[in-house]
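Please, structure for the following, as tokens.
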Amino acid sequence: MTQKLVVGVLALLLSTTMVYAQKTASSKVPAEVKASFNKSHPDINKVVWELENGAYEAGFSEKGVESSEVYSKSGDLMEQK
């Protein structure tokens, strides 16, 4: 019984995480956000964008290191990971 409960809770947490961040097409990312990212990373061509609580997260690889940055709708850098 406890194993089923643990699996159920894990499934619920996983589904909540999936809803939390949604992949977003580059065409739907505001120009200000893309301009700010491109100014900081002019050589990065492959970016995966996600919409996360009204902010835009850019996932990318730079010099073999996976990184991400979160930008406000106006293009301000809010967080680096």
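Residues 19 and 52 are 9 Å apart (CA to CA). The first strand starts at residue 21 and ends at 24.
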